[in-house]
Amino acid sequence: MSDKRDFLATAGVNTRLAHTGNVPSDYHGFVNPPIVRASTVLFPDARTMDTRAQKYTYGTRGTPTTDALCEAIDALEGSAGTILVPSGLAAVTVPFLAFLSSGDHALIVDSVYFPTRNFCNTMLTRMGVTVEYYDPAIGAGIEALIRPNTRLVHTEAPGSNTFEMQDISAISGVAHRHGCVVTMDNTWATPLYFKPLDHGVDISIHAATKYPSGHSDILMGTVSANAKHWEQLHEATITLGICGSPDDSYQILRGLRTMGVRLERHQESALNLARWLEEHEDVERVLHPALPRFPGHDIWKRDFTGASGIFSFVLKVSEQAQVKARAHAFLDALSIFGLGYSWGGYESLALVVGLSDRTICKQPAEGPVIRLQIGLEDVPDLRRDLEAGFAAAAAVSA
Ligand SMILES: Cc1ncc(COP(=O)(O)O)c(C=O)c1O
To answer: According to the UniProt entry, which residues carry N6-(pyridoxal phosphate)lysine (predicted)?
Structure first.
């Protein structure tokens, strides 16, 4: 089996997903790694304990199960190392704590995931970090915002809920010239459809809660660093005492095996519905980066190799007074789409997006923004369900 690693280096993504992250011969041939639950790890003698000269030393510092997942993620990201944390939000906050200090300035994209903004506006600000939000379309123009104390540039593309694209390579190039760390929340694309480190990003962030889990039952985050930033990231997670559990790691590794084929289905169904919605008389516009009419589509086409299954649309309303009533009528008429947060699971979800936190990418003026997570169900059924929503929304009078 010695040449398996070489084979996988040039293999297709589904082959790599099926075969990375564990070595069956290490576990008597069993194809999946064992779930090793641990706090204590024993040392054979005092000298080994004193020098910590063995692979595993304590549960928070890794187990064979968490290592198997980290190895699989590193293979997908092309990273020097990956840490596991208990949620996607922690996958953002831990690297911010790792790389920012009091007196630093951080540039955060305005279309960021709201809880990230909340962390920046509360804890990070309280710690003495100055936070400034920037336009996702800024590209190399970010240079004008960089101050002598700017230390970190955070990107997220597409943006949360409204899906604005970012020129990640241009932003990274400028940020590095000024000595900044570039972080990216790449949850939407997964490393299958965009590899941040290949585009100059230093720290790739994922809510593994979404597509890697795939079944709406696990919370986990992964943070992967390039060689230059790995040590500092690793040190931070050890210092904070934040780690992912072996049981959850096992489930995420299990999810990775089918993530490629699931994503193909999410992509195909979501695009099918997005194109249908674009032509729908009750839809003002569709916010999906893979649609040629969407601003930022050129960047998506240039840099991304696929699209996942979550996008939004703006519901048509004739009067502003109808906004909430129509949006609620639409949601309440749905049978298959559940009303719930999160995404990336097998089941479809819908919600009305709130954008009152934005300072640059404001709420579309035309009507409410409805976000759809397209699951693995049959498209004709999802379409029928959405039609019921449109009929209910249209029945609302001003
Ligand atoms: C883009 C993005 N990043 C991070 C997260 C946080 O993930 P978690 O729910 O695991 O904290 C989410 C959750 O919705 C998200 O949409």
So the answer is: 210
The closest-lying atom of ligand 1 relative to the alpha carbon of residue 156 is: 1
What CATH number has the domain bearing residue 271?
A: 3.90.1150.10
Same domain, 227 and 349: no
Residue 1 pLDDT greater than 70, yes or no? no
State in Å: Cα 148 to ligand 1 middle: 31
- Shared-domain flag, residues 330 and 342: yes
Instruction: State in Å: Cα 162 to ligand 1 middle.
Output: 15
pLDDT given at position 2: 59
12 found inside a domain: no
Report the separation in Å between the CA atom of 24 and the middle of ligand 1, taken as the mean of its atom positions. Answer: 32
Q: Which tens digit of pLDDT belongs to each residue from 183-225?
A: 999 999 999 999 999 999 999 999 999 999 999 999 999 999 9
Ligand 1 atom nearest to 87, measured from its CA: 10
Q: Determine the distance separating the centroid of ligand 1 and the alpha carbon of 121, expressed in angstroms.
A: 17
- Ligand 1 centroid – CA 227 distance (Å): 25
Please choose from 96, 114, 187 the residue to mutate so as to test ligand 1's pocket, defined by most ligand atoms within 8 A of CB. Answer: 187
- Cα(336) to centroid(ligand 1), Å: 23
C-beta of residue 17 within 8 angstroms of C-beta of residue 73: no
Domain end residue (candidates: 222, 255, 288): 255
Range of the domain at 385: 259-394
Same domain, 232 and 220: yes
Q: Where are the beta strands (DSSP E) in 328-392?
A: 338-339, 349-352, 369-373
User: Which of 237, 255, 273 is the C-terminal boundary of a domain?
Assistant: 255
Task: Dump pLDDT digits (tens) for 257-295.
Answer: 999 999 999 999 999 999 999 999 999 999 999 999 999
Same domain for 250 and 370, yes or no, is no
The percentage of residues in the chain with a pLDDT greater than 70, rounded to a whole number, is 99
Pocket test for ligand 1, best of 119, 342, 353 (most atoms within 8 A of CB): 342
Assess whether 264 and 303 both reside in one domain: yes
Give the Cα separation of 61 and 241 in Å (integer). Answer: 9
**Contact 209 CB / ligand 1 (< 6 Å):** yes
- Rounded distance between C-alpha atoms, residue 308 and residue 290, angstroms: 10
Is 220 within 8 Å of 85 (Cβ atoms)?
Answer: yes
Residue among 102, 212, 123 at smallest CA distance from 224: 212
C-alpha torsion angle, residues 257, 261, 262, 264 (rounded to 10): 150
Token reading at 296: 């930022």
DSSP 8-state assignment for residue 356: T
- pLDDT of the residue at 109: 98
Please write the tens of the pLDDT for every residue from 147-169.
999 999 999 999 999 999 999 99
